[in-house]
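Thread: Newbie trying to understand structure tokens

Hi all, I'm a second-year student working on a class project, and my supervisor (Dr. K.) asked me to get a predicted structure for one chain before our next meeting. I've only ever worked with sequences, so writing a 3D structure as a token string is new to me. If someone could post the tokens and maybe explain what I'm looking at, I'd be very grateful. Here's the chain:
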Amino acid sequence: MTPGMAIIGLAVALACAFAGQAIGRGKGYPGAGFAIGLLLGVLGVVIVALMPETEAVKAARAQRQYEAQVAAAQRQYEIQAEAARRAGYPFPPPFPIPPPPPQGPLQPYQNWQPPSP
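---
Reply by user tm_fold:
Sure, no problem. This is what the structure looks like when written as tokens:
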């Protein structure tokens, strides 16, 4: 083996290792992706691509999707509120104002009797 071929082989092995790491990072296996890509080359990259995602990666993706849905709902609410405001309608409808708390010390009921059975 000539030195040129060894350098090319090393470059291909490192390229496969970093490709395996890049693919494995998205699936939750960055270290395993690097090792499998380095040891098995192109076949290792294919194996890493076919590996299932970890539960942590699935949960993180679900969390991002949930946050995106909440943000989209908030934007839609703001659009509707602005449209209602421009049309002259209160949005959201005003809530009834609770009565003010009584002033002064609280007094017990006068002449209160327990209910008879």
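A couple of things are worth pointing out once you decode it. DSSP finds four helices and no strands in the chain. The helical segments are 3-27, 30-40, 42-50, 55-87. Feel free to ask follow-ups in this thread.
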